[in-house]
Specification:
This protein is α/β, with parallel strands linked by helices and 369 residues long. 41% of the residues lie in helices and 17% in strands. The strands form 4 sheets. A 7-stranded mixed beta sheet has the order 2-10-9-8-5-3-4, with helices on both faces. Strands 11-14-13 form a 3-stranded antiparallel beta sheet, covered by helices on one side. A two-stranded parallel ribbon has the order 1-12. The two termini are 25 Å apart. Bound molecules: pyridoxal-5'-phosphate. Pyridoxal-5'-phosphate (PLP) binds next to helix 3.
Length: 369
């Protein structure tokens, strides 16, 4: 067991900087002015990343990312609305399940896990069923790392006069999205992904007009984004106990985001990480599941070695002992494992991870090099 803190090559929680963790060493009062300013500053900066300050609200919500997805569906889809859920992985499936649990009518369109949804598909589906009011899309489907063509799909949806809800949990902050170019009612992200904060809060960027019309839609008190926003707009405070340390850590993470060079620099570092990983793994004979053209630089799915001596659990534990935390695969048809490219890690960290993986596979006598 390595005594140093491990590097998390996972899509959240992920490796954070010492500075971000240090920002959690202070206790904050939820009524305190300086804490409320922290929240306001975080929301303002987040809106800036999307170029959405003029058109959208940032509504933060306590909880993991799924809480924010559920809150967005419950708040923005009226009870007589109907959601078309575009699925090519586990997070799309989860979104459909949220609609089901909340009692919102929905239909699904599912493609294979290595097959992005196309704007043509969405156009056809919206023609076929005029009762659809909203479309829900996963931008980067983290179960494989596949990137769906968000801007093209968003335009088709707008042409049909329908509303778009985007789960951009694993892409926001790293992949460019411009709210003035990509029309949407809601975009959902969280503290503990590409912004490199700690987990514990999500946020929903809601179109101002869409949120204004959403009063009373929600089935839930705690998950009502309309109320959450109204209360915060009036008082500057969170409606219920805020995740104070998470907000403080995110504020510090955002300072570092700007210092690094903002979205472009973050994107570049992750793209570098991803390429280092792909090249390194290819050099030891490990193949990635997705073709390069649809691979987002967020997380990479690899085929497991075809060798009876390979067992994920054993492999995982041995790599962990060398200081790196990997992620199991999420595919049903093929045996895979995943390696994240996001978090406070750079090219040299990724190369060290590849070296550790190679060493472990040699120890397991899976790799003959
Ligand atoms: C991480 C993630 C979520 C949220 O998952 P939680 O476990 O609730 O934080 C949702 N969608 C996508 C695409 C994600 O990567």
């Amino acid at each position: 067991m390595s005594t140093a803190a491990p590097i998390l090559l996972t899509p959240g929680p992920l490796t954070t900087s010492a500075r971000t963790r240090q920002a959690m060493m202070l206790d904050w009062g939820s009524w305190d002015d300086s804490f409320n300013q922290l929240t306001a500053s975080v929301c303002e900066q987040l809106l800036g990343i999307l170029n959405a300050s003029a058109s959208h609200h940032c509504v933060p919500l306590q909880g993991s990312g799924t809480f924010a997805v559920e809150a967005a569906i419950g708040t923005l889809v009226p009870r007589d609305g109907k959601v078309l859920v575009l699925i090519n992985g586990a997070y799309g499936t989860r979104l459909a399940k949220i609609c089901k649990v909340l009692g919102r009518a929905f239909s699904t369109f599912e493609t294979a896990e290595d097959d992005p949804t196309t704007p043509g598909d969405v156009d056809r589906l919206l023609r076929e069923d005029p009762s659809i009011t909203h479309v829900a899309l996963i931008h980067c489907e983290t179960s494989t790392g596949i990137l769906n063509p968000l801007p093209e799909i968003a335009h088709v949806i707008a042409q049909h006069g329908k509303r778009l809800i985007i789960d951009a949990m694993s892409s926001f902050g790293a992949l460019p999205i411009d709210a003035q170019q990509v029309p949407f009612d809601a975009l959902i992200a969280a503290s503990g992904k590409c912004l490199e904060g700690v987990p514990g809060m999500g946020f929903v960027f809601t179109h101002q007009q869409a949120l204004a019309k959403a009063e009373g839609n929600s089935h839930s008190l705690a998950m009502d984004l309309y109320d959450q926003h109204a209360y915060m707009a009036k008082t500057g405070q969170w409606r219920f106990t805020p995740p104070t340390h998470v907000v403080a850590a995110l504020h510090e993470a955002l300072l570092q985001y700007v210092e690094e060079g903002g979205l472009q620099a973050r994107h570049q570092r992750y793209a570098d990480n991803c390429q280092t990983l792909l090249d390194g793994m290819a050099s030891i004979g490990l193949r990635s599941f997705l073709p390069a053209a649809i691979q987002a630089p967020i997380i990479v799915t690899f085929h497991a070695p075809e060798d009876p001596r390979y067992q994920f659990k054993d492999f995982y534990e041995r790599v962990k002992a060398k200081g790196f935390i990997l992620y199991p695969g999420k595919l049903t048809q093929v045996e895979t494992f995943r390696v994240g490219c996001i978090g406070c890690v750079d090219r040299s960290g990724m190369q060290a991870a590849v070296d550790a993986i190679a060493q472990v596979l040699r120890e397991m006598e899976v790799l003959d090099i």
